[in-house]
Amino acid sequence: MTDAPISEPSPAIRVLVVEDDDSNRLLMDDYLTHQGYQVLSLAEGSSFFSTLAQFQPHVVLLDLKLPNISGYQLLEGLRQNIEFQHLPVIVLTASAFRTERQQVLQLGVQGYFVKPSHPKELIAAIEKVCAG
């Protein structure tokens, strides 16, 4: 009788959360971590690009209204960065304006959720963009 090889678990999906509201950020961080994701959270966008380089996330959850720099600016900078221009981004925002949604979709986001969003829908979106 031979032992079956033990398969290594696949590495967890790394999620970068950029959310300035402390309650929303902590809740999202806890929920995603509980779901098995590796999560790193930022309260503002000043260290966004250095964090991308260090953390190498599989997906970014991005709020559009941030202090000091807008989510739009981060998204535009991301799309101009050769290393990260194809990184999946899911927007989480309190704004439900159609023009805002169209603007970020033109910048290549893979999802747009109006807060409060349903956690299971967010997980489904993360799984979809990370599956390829």
Describe what you observe in this structure.
- This protein has one domain: Response regulator (Rossmann fold).
- With 132 residues, it is α/β, with parallel strands linked by helices.
- It contains five helices and five strands, in the order βαβαβαβαβα.
- Residues 1-10 have low confidence and may be disordered.
- It is globular, with a radius of gyration of 16 Å.
- A five-stranded parallel beta sheet has the order 2-1-3-4-5, with helices on both faces.
- Helix 3 (71-80) links the parallel strand 3 and strand 4.
- The chain starts with 13 loop residues before the first strand and ends with a helix.
Present the secondary structure layout:
Elements lengths: L13 E5 L3 H13 L3 E5 L5 H8 L3 E4 L8 H10 L8 E5 L4 H9 L4 E4 L4 H12 L2
Parallel strand pairs: 1-2, 1-3, 3-4, 4-5
Features:
5 helices, 132 residues, single chain
- Can you tell me the residue ranges where pLDDT is under 50 for at least 5 consecutive residues? 1-10
The rounded distance between the terminal residues' Cα atoms is 39 Å
Q: What's the number of helices?
A: 5
CATH structural fold name: Rossmann fold
Count of beta strands: 5
Radius of gyration: 16 Å
User: Rough shape?
Assistant: globular
